[in-house]
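Why do we bother with holo predictions? Because pocket geometry can differ from the apo form. Keep that in mind while you read this record for zinc ion.
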Amino acid sequence: MSNMHAAVLHGRHHMTIEEVNVPAPGPGEILLKVERAGICGSDLHIIESDSAQAAVLGHEFAGTVAELGPGIERFKLNDGICSLPMIGCGRCVHCLSGDPAHCPTTRMIGMNMPRNGAFAEYVIVGEKETFLLPPGVDAALGALVEPLAVGLKMVEAVHWKPGETLAVLGAGPVGLAVVVWARALGFGDIVVSDPVQARRELALKLGATAVCDPSCEEVAGFCERELGGAPHLVIECIGRPGSLDLACALARSGGRVVIGGLHMHEESTRRIVPFLKELKISYCMMYEARHFDYTLKMLAQGRINPRPMITHEVSLSELPATMAALAQPNAFGKILVAPGRLRS
Ligand SMILES: [Zn+2]
Ligand SMILES: [Zn+2]
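The structure, written out:
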């Protein structure tokens, strides 16, 4: 193999489709032929930042084995696979417990690895971080495993008990993944707040029991009416200034709050509110290998159906314009890129 097409980011909002060398997998690595790759909110943070350097983004993906690095026996050519978007050292306490996200030397695919991301025809992945796609799980569902694993870890972190009510702030792909799991795992009342009507409709389709437009109505008043009181549990999936305070203001006394949004800004928060309510607040980042494993099992058994999350599919050449459209207010759900198709 010699050349491939990749979407190379050269700086703030400057992405071009280029022909680059197909990388060769080293020991413990696999060359994955990308069939579908999802666009993530964190990709938008990266292209917005002034420090954006030459990089290939894309960390939510699935495809097939194109080439095996030396010594790999667990997979064979053309196997359908998806991977955690990171390659850990394999030796530290975090890697050994299946949590390469906290490995001090982990290499992040589509983030800090030089020009190795899934917005390309091929990407290098780690064998330890890779899973076979079970029968019935195609590449589109495989590309949703990463955002679903994010939502699963948040739902796990909220420690739900039967009878407790949940409010989800934000119905972007992560908020929607939270709804999918809350429904599948038996939560009763699931209220979702988002100002975009199309996203509220998606949330209802995926299992929300009531949806609120925060630009028209106070979420607290809505919860009071729908749930008969403040929610026991709040999962924040917004990542904008003020959303920590909003989550804490909404939860009932003794409640639990999970912060899952990516808060890149400095911000002062009103600590007296969670203090007086004695809230338990946890922050949640990424996932462990077991979250991928469980998600794939639930998909294979048909016990979750996240496919409605996918609202658009684009070719690689359409990616730069799609990223620009995502920077504006929009009603997109999850957008998948098909890098094998250069044009639509
Ligand atoms: Zn992501
Ligand atoms: Zn490690």
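The chain has two domains: 3-132+306-338, 149-283.
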